[in-house]
């Protein structure tokens, strides 16, 4: 995955102060990616996503993504924990601003994500402050109620995609087309972060959201990606 060709100063400005969502595209203008170079974090505002969508007639699908665009814009909105309203490429730029270099996203049965390891967790409101909640505590097996195994997240970056098949040379950041930000399994390479899990784990890890770990549907949280110390 090549580094996004954006001048360093522009990246810091765009992500720290920069632009929120695009109202014309149905995005929240107040949604901003925040880079904290001192804490070495990139964070985005998010809301707890509904697990049942009306157009799917109440059917609940196992979680495959931690974060992505919500319905109807998000390609995998029925499989997310939280809905975001930022461009995934802005998160990519934020991680580059911390000195990280994207690896290679995985897709398919034998593929495995490549890239620098990062921590991913939620900041959940608690009174006048907030508490840190690990991703493992947010995901459970709906039958046994056991929490998900520990996972390692990697900054893979997204594959580049040509939206128009008649113009194969005009490529865009794939995750900006699907809205996928953080993925558990290599079911898509149009995403910014993936875990070390493969499609072998996907066969038996059918996970759901632990309702005791997060606020109710629509509740505000913050998704945080923390880079390792230099």
UniProtKB/TrEMBL annotation:
Q: Which UniProt keywords apply?
A: Signal
Q: Where is the signal peptide?
A: 1-24
Could you tell me which InterPro entries the record lists for this protein?
Answer: YdjY-like (IPR047750)
Query: Signal: is it a keyword of this entry?
Result: yes
Q: Is the keyword Signal in the record? A: yes
* Domain of life of the native organism: Bacteria
Q: What is this protein called?
A: Uncharacterized protein
Q: From what organism does this protein derive?
A: Urbifossiella limnaea
Q: What is the lineage of its organism?
A: Bacteria, Pseudomonadati, Planctomycetota, Planctomycetia, Gemmatales
């Amino acid at each position: 995955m090549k580094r996004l060709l954006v001048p360093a100063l522009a990246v810091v400005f765009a992500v720290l102060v920069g632009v929120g969502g695009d109202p014309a595209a149905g995005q929240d203008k107040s949604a901003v990616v925040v880079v904290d170079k001192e804490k070495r974090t990139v964070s985005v505002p998010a809301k707890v996503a509904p697990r049942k969508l009306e157009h799917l007639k109440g059917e609940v699908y196992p979680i495959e993504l931690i974060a992505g665009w919500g319905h109807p814009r998000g390609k995998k909105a029925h499989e997310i924990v939280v809905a975001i309203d930022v461009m995934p490429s802005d998160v990519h730029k934020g991680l580059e601003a911390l000195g990280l270099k994207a690896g290679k996203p995985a897709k398919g049965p034998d593929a495995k994500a490549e890239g620098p390891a990062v921590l991913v967790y939620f900041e959940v409101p608690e009174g006048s402050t907030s508490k840190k909640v690990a991703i493992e505590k947010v995901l459970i097996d709906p039958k046994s109620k056991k929490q998900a195994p520990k996972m390692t997240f990697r900054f893979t970056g997204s594959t580049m995609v040509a939206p128009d098949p008649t113009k194969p040379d005009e490529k865009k950041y794939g995750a900006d087309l699907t809205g996928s930000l953080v993925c558990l399994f290599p079911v898509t390479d149009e995403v910014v972060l993936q875990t070390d899990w493969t499609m072998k784990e996907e066969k038996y890890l059918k996970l759901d959201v632990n309702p005791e770990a997060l606020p109710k549907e629509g509740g505000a949280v913050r998704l945080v990606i923390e880079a390792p110390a230099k």
